[in-house]
Amino acid sequence: MVTPRMAGFITRLAGLFDRVADPHERARAAADALAGLLRAGGILAPEHTEPDPRRYRQHLVHVDDRARFSVVSLVWLPGQHTPVHSHACWCVVGVVTGREAETRYRLDPAGRVVPAGTAVNLPGDVCWLVPPERDIHRVCNDGDRKAVSLHVYGADIAVRGSSINQVYPDPAARPRAPEHAP
Ligand code: FE
Fold it and tell me: Which of 85, 108, 147, 175 lies 20 to 30 Å (CA to CA) from residue 44?
C-alpha cells in the first residue's frame, strides 16, 4: 500500500523528471521534493517500516512506470549497517525516524577505501549522491531505536535488487599490522 502523501510525491517526481534528465538535476529535484515530504509526515504504510532482526531491510515502495526512479524504504535496528559500497545510480536519502551515521570513503592509489568523514543524519535530513563523485559510503543505525529512511534511486530497483554497484572490504574490520617489529 502507498499512502496518499506518497502517491502525491511519486506523481510530483514523475512530473519533474519529464522536465529534467540530467542525473544531478534529478537528484537535486528529488531531494527538494523529499525534504517537503518529510516535513508533511504520514509517508509510509506500516508494512514499509517493518524491520528484520537479522539485517537492515529494504522495502520497495514504488517503481516509476518508465523505470526513471524507484522509491525504497530502508529499516534498521540499532547497530545494523550496510557494507562499504558504491552506487550504480544517483541516490537521495531522507531520514524518517531514528538516526543514521553515514561514513564516506575515498579510494587510495592502491584502490583501498579510506574513511573521509562521518555525518549523522536525523529525521528530516536529506542528502544525495551522484556516482562516481563521492559515492562510496557505509550507513549504520548508531542510535538506540529503529531507524527508517526513504530513498529515491535513479534506476529500476525491482530489476537491480539494490542500488549497490560494488562492495569494498571495510577498513575498520581490516586486521592491523603490528606497530613494532618483533
Ligand atoms: Fe548507499
Answer: 85
**Cα 8 to Cα 43: distance, rounded to the nearest angstrom:** 10
pLDDT per residue as tens digits for the range 30-66: 999 999 999 988 899 999 999 999 999 999 999 999 9
158 CA distance to ligand 1 middle (Å): 16
CATH code 2.60.120.10 for 4-168:
yes
* Paired residues of 20 in beta bridges: none
Tell how far the Cα of 137 is from the centroid of ligand 1, in angstroms. 6
Please report, for the chain, the start and end positions of each structural domain, with discontinuous segments joined by +: 4-168
Bridge partners (DSSP) of residue 101 are: 120, 140
